[in-house]
Amino acid sequence: MENWFDWLKYLLLGLVQGVTEPIPVSSSGHLIIVQRLLGMEQNGLSFEILTNTASLIAICFIFRKDILDLITGFFRYLQTREPKYRSEFMFCIYIIIGTIPAAVAAVFFKDTIERVFTSVHTVSISLLITGVALWLIRNLRGQKRDGNLTVRDAIIVGLAQAVALIPGISRSGSTVIASIAVGMKQETALKFSFMLYIPISIGGLIMGASDIVHDPNRAALAMPYLIAFLTTLVATYYAMRWFIGIMAKGNLIYFSYYCFVVGTLLLIFL
């Protein structure tokens, strides 16, 4: 019976990770909250890497056409220098530029951030900050499309992604907010945000592979981790589809309300 209860906990954690990864409410912050409510220990790097990998697979599947077009256009421009491929080439360059701040911050500060900023109090404050940011950009409707981005835009959005290493600061939220703030159209902001997510997640998987291999609890947690992985995979897919629809309608304000409510309740009760 205890095994079934533990598996149910990991199913819930996978569901929380999957639902909250694409939307601007912070998956890491919600995992901390749920683990606190369930009385669970922090699951460690192996669990984080596995569930993030599941989310990565789901998001890559949804954006597979965009990814293929960008890769194809990038290399065709390198080979031919034809102007029709320049937009894809420059978009890839901006993804690389935008990835650098978060990559540097992860290498040098991630352990410190996770040690210092993993309290529920930090998560509550971070959610309130996210809520304020979402509220401020609620009426912005930019005009920049894929071919109109600049190095400045990439750096600003990249810095926003680096800030999202703090639990409670949503990665998708911070990058979408920054993208809209610099004048991107909703669809470009969404695309750029999740194209930035892909390299940073792949980098985290590569850097953390040894932690999975050398995890002393690997055998005992194989089934719970598998349950969490599959649940995250499915939940991320449907949550991402839902969020695409939300972005198309410009209804980010509802996530602002959610962050205000949850952040306030955490301050009061936890």
TrEMBL record:
What residue range is the signal peptide?
none
> Does the record's keyword annotation contain Acetylation?
no
Q: What is its EC number?
A: 3.6.1.27
Identify the Pfam families for this entry: BacA
Q: Which UniProt keywords apply?
A: Antibiotic resistance, Cell membrane, Cell shape, Cell wall biogenesis/degradation, Hydrolase, Membrane, Peptidoglycan synthesis, Transmembrane, Transmembrane helix
Which molecular-function annotations from GO does this UniProt entry contain?
A: undecaprenyl-diphosphatase activity
Enzyme class, top EC level, equals hydrolase
Q: Give the membrane topology, semicolon-separated if more than one.
A: Multi-pass membrane protein
Predominant place of localization: membrane
The reply on keyword Cell wall biogenesis/degradation is: yes
Give the location in the cell: Cell membrane
Summarizing the function annotation, the protein's role is: Catalyzes the dephosphorylation of undecaprenyl diphosphate (UPP). Confers resistance to bacitracin.
Q: Which family does it belong to?
A: Belongs to the UppP family.
Q: What else is known?
A: Bacitracin is thought to be involved in the inhibition of peptidoglycan synthesis by sequestering undecaprenyl diphosphate, thereby reducing the pool of lipid carrier available.
**Protein's UniProt name:** Undecaprenyl-diphosphatase
Task: Tell me which species this is from.
Answer: Paenibacillus silagei
Q: Which gene encodes it?
A: uppP
